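Anyone have tokens for G2/mitotic-specific cyclin-2? Sequence:
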Amino acid sequence: MPQTVINNENEYRFTRSSKIVPQDETTVSTGPAATVSTSTTTTTTTQSTQNSHKPSTKNADDSSIQVNTREYLGDLSNQDTGHPGQLKRRPLGGDVQPLRQSAIVSHNNSNTGGTNAKDKELIPPRLPQKRQATESSTNLVEKLHISRHPHPHTSIQVNAVGPAGIQDIAAGSSSSVNVPYKKSKLTPVDYEWEDLDEEDMDDPLMASEYVNDIFPYLRELEIKSLPDSQYLFKQRHLKPKMRSILVDWLVEMHLRFRLLPETLFLAINIMDRFMSLEVVQIDKLQLLATGSLFIAAKYEEVFSPSVKNYAYFTDGSYTEEEILQAEKYILTVLNFDLSYPNPMNFLRRISKADDYDVQSRTLGKYLLEISIIDYKFIGVLPSLCSASAMYIARSILSKDPVWNGNLIHYSGGYRVSDMKDCIEKIIAFLVAPVEHDEFFKKYASRKFMKASILCRNWAKKVVQENRDIFV
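Reply: yep, here.
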């Protein structure tokens, strides 16, 4: 490369690429006071071309060229280092295709009547495309928004509830005009309910503006995050009794660490989903439960217990390194998917229609936790278990009516007929002898209003009297 000696204070050497300046331009300016004449630039370029294969020397001719340092820096920064049609490499890989000139030229011709060569060079590069995750989530939100809030002028048929009807709504077709679309659901609603979210519009923590979009999305996630209901019978070395003992030990560790209720629900869901995919040996069950609670605590808790505490609680059965390796393997099998809609969120949503009654909510927590303790509830939707727990809690407290329009709406549309099987399973668990001692002792304390004792006494009385609680 030709080099030019610059007479500045420290005599730094700057390398300048040879660039022929068009003869039409008289001066080239990079600052308000720095200009270079055409003759001087042409002379410098000619000398650089002739001496391209010779070492650069400092002579009288080179010293006669006086150029400011700011001018060189500005000139180098403004140079075009590549061909206008050449692809530019992105920092993280991939090529950015150049913007098509035809569309822009036609657009400019329509507006200004024509373009020149300089305007084409000043065309900005195309903006980078969206990431795949952002694009997929955006499309999902748009589909949900279109399916729930179509255009106000769009009208649909009553029987067009299938995918074809929804596609017509999204496309904005108005060929069939039978019933005008309203803000209510497609299916007729035969119950009355109040808009309780309107009272919380001033409270940003309640997120009342987005709650009608959040919970339908959670009901979609709960279907994807369900474990296999028959995995206990597919495992060769595993039996339901072993899971009961393991879950009871997990409840004891959860209570000892004073973790949140959401952490226990997520830990058992992780454990069930893992055993639905992988065959686990009997001597590794305790390690699986420890790793599941360790992952769930990291996900839900503000201050998660250290891995040393988990290793100490196992009485030295597993080291810290083994717990960390189990954590990596569990997350790899689950594909790092921890998007589990916690049943406590559904229970809190239903409590809104129950005026946030403390007694019914405490009883509901105990009844809801039965759904993760007993293996018979594997594969049952968390929202259904939450609604069934609230129904039994209100029945125990003799509230009238037990189930009304507000409770149907804020539970996700569950009616008494939908919850009948789940309620019968819960009552059967309450009537049966106590198998999970730690779980029973946990809710037999004053902190939880002795919920386990109260619910079991009520269930035995209902069965003895042969009372119908579905009236």
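The two ends are 94 Å apart (CA to CA).
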